[in-house]
Amino acid sequence: MSNVRVRFAPSPTGYLHVGGLRTALYNYLFARKQNGVFILRIEDTDRGRYVEGAEANLIQALKWAGLSYDEGPDVGGPMAPYRQSERIDMYRKHALQLVDEGKAYYAFDTAEELESMRKEQEKLRQTPKYDRRALKLTTEEVKAKLDAGIPHVVRLRVPDATTVAFDDIVRGHVEFATEQIDDQVLLKSDGYPTYHLANVVDDHLMQVSHVIRGEEWLSSTPKHVLLYQYFGWELPQFAHLPLLLNPDKSKLSKRQGDVAVEDYRAKGYLPPALVNFVALLGWNPGDEREIFSLEELIQEFSLERVGKSGAVFNLEKLDWMNFEHLRKIPDAQVLQMLRNVLADSEFAAKSFSDEYLRGVITAMRDRASFARDFVEKCPYFYARPEQYDQDVVKKRWKAESPAHLKQLAEEFSRLTDSAKESFEAVLHRTAESLHVKNAELIHPLRVAVSGMGAGPGLYDILHLLGKDEVINRIETAIERIH
RNA sequence: GGCCUUAUCGUCUAACGGUUAGGACGGAGCCCUCUCAAGGCUCAAAUACGGGUUCGAUUCCCGUUAAGGCUACCA
Length: 482
Known about the structure:
With 482 residues, the chain is mostly helical.
């Protein structure tokens, strides 16, 4: 048992950002490690940014990554609902409570008025901040405006001349002067809460023990702390995670590459690889291990080992991790992945036996970082070469190669099987009788059967293709390579 | 501009006052070898700068610089 309750609280903007994935992951790991509860809460309080299907997309991405949650909009839970749009009564009630207690107040300013106020402040080089003009209204005036149905918001009344402080698990002690804190809107004129209000109310009501979120929230945390104090609620622990960065060190964003989890999924990255990779962006186990399964990450994770500085999202290392994770996947499973890739390829119409494909997998294992590499890096396993790599031909195809290969084909034709060793023995014998080095036959033969200069050991290729196919390809190559 | 945060190889990072500043990705080279990989070995590569504190600073403090975040009736 544990009182740890954490949440991932994304705004459904259409897709899951890899930064969001990492935030979700750290919450998940912390919850699992502490035998706590992991909650998914949808922060959809901005009806202006409503995106059809965004929530389903988000859930699908989390599922793909393997991050299961104990409570959430689709699985329910004791503190339901988990969609903020379905909880607006609670926010309103709490906002009004603060108004009653003088800790928040109504404001009736229009967007235009606020805009010109801000412009004025900027002109005077002041910090843009609400000037509290609504506080000059008498209670009668406020009541009259309310009765007249004039659009209004509720703003937080930030105390003067004091500081708000809190201790962050990652950052340590942080302090803000209240002069710097704006009288934040709590309840918008459309009746929906802002993030700040909804977040605090929900975290309290859902008994969230640790707020683990991105560093972009650090600056608004004092507003949240103030709310907890105003409501008389116990403060959760805060842990503000370092940001994920573009190569130029700015906050990871679109336009500088892929940021959506689904992009990486589409590119063929394995869920455990992507998870492993983002886990190590801002956290490390303290020793030199780098490859972890989700289970292992749970065992090792601690918030104390989360770093403070932002981390650049480095694709090259991610590719390497994908390679490492791919090679851990058993053949049977890779076979299924390969079949999926094949079904989506130019070779979709052809059929191959499991045995054959297993052979390809064995041959290509050390050369594949992605499932698609089992097809893209060795198309010759699925069809005869349509062309021959000219650079390789130039380098390996000698004037006498056609004659050599012709003889080899003849020797091969006497073979009674397609064993690797049989091909090897015949090739050695032929080279000897021709008085050439094995390599003089191997290289041209490789080009002839594969069209390429790189790949698995030649005898593995020959064995897989089989005697008849090999002979056939040799004959074709002799005709077509010049 | 203001506030907040951050600062070790190109990148991800280790070193919680004493190390030849370690590892990984990437790069270079060598070995292996029928090619390409994989694997093994080796090399190049960092404590932003300036002051303190200390017998001793990557580590603690201050400043500078740089970078980032926030500065909405968005999250």
